[in-house]
């Protein structure tokens, strides 16, 4: 069985060889010469390195007479160690050798991939994903690159380049963390970095920004004096214009931080009537609807369209009210919002809420509270009298919030058939004759439609008609799921809506229609699991009915 090879360069050089029958742990290369030889081939992976170049790397200007022979012998040893006796990976190429490995076989490759994806996410306005991707890439580092390999010309140059890439990725991760409002959490890291790299400007700017946004203005100003003294002493130069501008902004009491926290909305179509109901003068609006109906997409799309109305910025929080993760407590959300606004965060929820209301009292801002569990989840997050507007989304009907705060409510229903077909076309191309039936089988729900379209685009052998037949006669919930990602799918979404339902109430959803009075009917209405059709009459959407039929057959 061919061996699978993996290499780690981000720290001491290590090799792992695995097959279907056995797997070794990561192992170091004991001999210094062999370690250097492998390192040179790895930093030039995919390129032919001449034997005379290898000799120069291993022995410098005074190689022994047996140098070429020793190179060949060490190549043979490396091939045996890697299970590559035939030289299919470590290839003889003319008067040299070439190591053919893919990006996935190198920790460097994985680091570069995560860094690229993190930069793209940050560029697309998604700092939360960017921070996560960049931190995952940085976690691959186990120390200085190739730290146990002698610093030959090629090795030293490669290690220096890798170290610079680590620094750039780390600084970009800090930018993403700051964009997420996590100013306090990065201060210690930044303080350490400016001590290690006092002549790099970006960490100094980031440290001043983080300190200022956590209310530590005096420390931020003192930091500028430190960097100025360091640069005058070491470089004979004043800080850059950008650093001086930041210093002036911190000195100015009128300076305001303008957060832009809205994430990118998923593919959006239609909803003209609902969009017209948002931002009509109400200080708070709640968009309510069932699982997968597109509440978050509507809120984020409107927020992007209305960005010019909110010159003081946008705050965003996924409250995780219906989520596999624990709900985000109002106190934690308030802390994040205050950090994003550059305001000191007091202890205690009531104190934070008071500072939050004071801060927003004269700011034209949009606050998006996504995925709220119930009215109590958002009450502490509502500003007082203010030009700020709040947009809430929830599966709960939020009638209590309407009663206590006069919040305007917009109920979201499934897409119109034409809009559902447009959503499918956006992924699959020109309209297919069976789009209408596919949309109907998905109950015209954006989540179900996006999953169906994603599955079809990943299965070129499957036609729209094939999927329509599978949905008509098979396991609907299985078809509307994403392979390898159990958290994305209609069943996963409905699990969260129905988790609090008693078994008897859940069983009632197996019917096509429910009439009042019926146990738990008010709860089903509040969670948008049934659709009112007339006085005392409610229909159960087909996908909800399919879900109920599936789960009520399980042993709870």
From TrEMBL:
SMART domains xref list: BTAD, Trans_reg_C
Residue ranges the UniProt entry marks as DNA-binding: 5-101
UniProt signal peptide: none
Keywords: DNA-binding, Transcription, Transcription regulation
Record domain OmpR/PhoB-type: where: 5-101
CDD domains reported in the protein's UniProt record: BTAD (cd15831)
Family in the record: Belongs to the AfsR/DnrI/RedD regulatory family.
Protein name: BTAD domain-containing putative transcriptional regulator
Organism of provenance: Actinophytocola glycyrrhizae
């Amino acid at each position: 069985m061919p061996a699978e090879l993996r290499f780690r360069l981000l720290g001491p050089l290590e090799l792992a060889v695995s097959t279907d029958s056995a797997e070794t742990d990561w192992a170091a290369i004991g001999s210094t010469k062999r370690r250097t030889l492998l390192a040179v081939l790895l930093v030039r992976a995919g390129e032919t390195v001449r034997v005379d170049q290898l000799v120069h790397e291993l022995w410098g200007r005074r190689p022994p007479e047996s140098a070429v022979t020793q190179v060949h012998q060490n190549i043979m040893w490396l091939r045996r160690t890697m299970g590559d006796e035939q030289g299919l990976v470590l290839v003889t190429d003319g008067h040299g050798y070439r190591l053919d490995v893919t990006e996935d076989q190198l920790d460097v490759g994985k680091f570069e991939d995560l860094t690229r994806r993190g930069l793209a996410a940050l560029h697309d306005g998604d700092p939360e994903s960017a921070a996560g991707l960049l931190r995952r890439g940085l976690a691959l580092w186990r120390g200085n690159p190739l730290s146990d390999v002698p610093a030959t010309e090629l090795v030293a140059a490669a290690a220096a380049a890798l170290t610079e890439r680590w620094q750039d990725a780390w600084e970009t991760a800090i930018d993403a963390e700051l964009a997420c409002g996590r100013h306090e959490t990065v201060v210690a890291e930044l303080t350490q970095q400016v001590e290690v790299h006092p002549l790099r400007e970006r960490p100094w700017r980031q440290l001043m920004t983080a300190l200022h946004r956590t209310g530590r203005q005096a420390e931020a100003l003192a930091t500028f004096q430190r960097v100025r003294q360091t640069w005058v002493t070491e470089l004979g130069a004043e800080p850059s214009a950008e650093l001086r501008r930041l210093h002036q902004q911190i000195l100015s009491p009128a300076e305001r931080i303008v957060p832009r926290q809205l994430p990118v909305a998923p593919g959006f179509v239609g909803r003209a009537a609902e969009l017209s109901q948002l931002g009509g003068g109400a200080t708070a609006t709640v968009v309510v609807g069932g699982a997968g109906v597109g509440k978050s997409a509507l809120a984020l799309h409107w927020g992007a369209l209305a960005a010019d109305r909110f010159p003081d910025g946008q705050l965003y929080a996924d409250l995780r009210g219906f989520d596999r993760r624990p709900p985000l407590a109002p106190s934690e959300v308030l802390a994040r919002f205050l950090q994003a606004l550059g305001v000191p965060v007091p202890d205690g929820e009531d104190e934070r809420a008071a500072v939050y209301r004071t801060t927003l009292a004269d700011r034209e801002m949009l606050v998006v509270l996504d995925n709220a569990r119930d009215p109590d989840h958002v009450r502490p997050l509502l500003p007082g009298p203010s030009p700020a507007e709040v947009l809430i989304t929830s599966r709960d009907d939020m009638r209590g919030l309407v009663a206590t705060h006069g919040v305007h409510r917009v109920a979201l229903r499934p897409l119109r058939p034409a809009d559902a077909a447009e959503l499918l076309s956006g992924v699959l191309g020109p309209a297919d004759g069976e789009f209408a039936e596919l949309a109907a089988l998905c109950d015209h729900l954006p989540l179900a439609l996006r999953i169906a379209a994603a599955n079809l685009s990943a299965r070129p052998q499957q036609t729209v008609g094939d999927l329509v037949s599978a949905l008509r006669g098979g396991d609907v919930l299985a078809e509307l799921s994403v392979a390898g990602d159990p958290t994305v799918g209609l069943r996963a979404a409905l699990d969260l809506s129905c988790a609090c339902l008693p078994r008897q109430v859940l069983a009632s959803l197996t019917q096509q229609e429910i009439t009042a009075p019926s146990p738990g009917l008010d709860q089903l209405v509040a969670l948008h699991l049934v659709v009112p059709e007339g006085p005392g009459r409610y229909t159960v959407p087909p996908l909800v009915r399919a879900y109920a039929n599936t789960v009520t057959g399980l042993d709870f």
